[in-house]
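Worked problem 6 (solution included).
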Amino acid sequence: MSQTGIFVVGLIVYIIVLMFIGWLSARAKSKGKGFLTGGNSVGVLPLVGTVVATCIGSGSTMGATGNGYFYGWAGALVAVGNGIGIAAILMYMGMRKRKHATLAKELQFLLGGGKEAHKLITAVLIFVEIMAIGGSINGASKYLCYVTGMKDVLAKLIITVAFFGFSYFGGFLSVVWTDTIQMGIIFVGFILIAIRALPMAGGYGAVKSAFEAAGNADALGFYGIGAYGTMAALTLVVGSFFNAFCSASFYNRVANAASDKVCKQGFLIGAVFDFMFGFLPAIVGMSCFAICTQRGTPLEAADYAFSYMATVALGPVLGLLLLIAGISACVSSADSQLISSTSMFITDLYPEFLHKELPGERYKSVSRIIMLCITLLSFSMALYAKDVIGYITNIFGTMMPGIGVMMILARFWKRITWQGALACVFGGIGFGIIYLFVPPFKAAIAGVFGGPAIVVMIFALILCIVVSLATPACTLTEEERLAKMAE
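Solution. The predicted structure is:
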């Protein structure tokens, strides 16, 4: 069998086995509301697994490997922001005491308990998750296309069936346990590949010599900041922080942990694991640069570093392991985002529009219908609107700092109003549109800051404070807010 055939067959077997394990692990606790909550019984091990696997996506693997290829240790910068973001999520532990199942519900409470902003913020959070799923489909399909030469449509279909199956058959617990297995695959895969790749390059000394010969010795300094640029590195870390901190899927894990102690342990351990993982793709990328330099075959684009290592530098066994690890990183993010967006739809939007709670016995059937609709929408966007997905992903990428600033202020600043919160969120969208479609504006910001994250953060902070101070403050007590939400 050819190497491509080995890759495809191995991947399909892997997906089928994971689906079965997910279904088996969730049978007892996937009835009624348990389909989306897992019976609020997630322990430390599966919590760490699902948190880390959800956080590690194509940016932390393929993107970080590419950064490692060009900028050395800067390939580990994304993991710094992600790790801090995961730990910061614990500031929302209060949602456990109030028994709020979603981030949107907790934000409704913090913003006064009213419904004025709840629908809009929930819709934005769901749409961000849908776009993130589309991004995960695109990211995972790149692995398949690069490594196997598979057609783009077929690659995206395989990836979509995989994460949909993980979510559909067993619900939340299925996602948690398949994520945990995938986290193990991701770590073991990248550790073994890093151990193999560095000697292939001739050791760290040869890697250092290759970067020095290319006039890029700073790439091997502290996080490669000398090569990447101080402001660009700070912008990347800030952007990565908000991408993790603002992801609604993590807050489902906060709500569904077995206890407060388990929740704290799971997220803190997960933050450390994610931080440590960041060095692995950086090592793979740097080794790839040295190998390509020695062979006289420099890569045209950073994205090719991952596929080069899988198909050229490594044999079929390690190549398959690298492929599965990379795809696992994307699929484990997509299934978590699918469960999260479905949960917000059922918990937050369904009661708002139909003015009644969904009966427990209908949770599983209705949730599966919503999952299917969200999956089809995400797949369609990924399939037919590649350029649009790129633009919208960037727009909402610039919006994440706005959401993050709003979330931090809502948690610690009692004077924030729902109007100020909306100004933060939609101000970020407006900023994203301007950043994308006004080239001089984009060039000016990118030239100074290396990206939009820091500027959006400052802009959103000022906008939220000004609008909040200009609008009436909420004077309701916690009990009154909860009562208002129950109306």
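Discussion: DSSP finds 23 helices and no strands in the chain.
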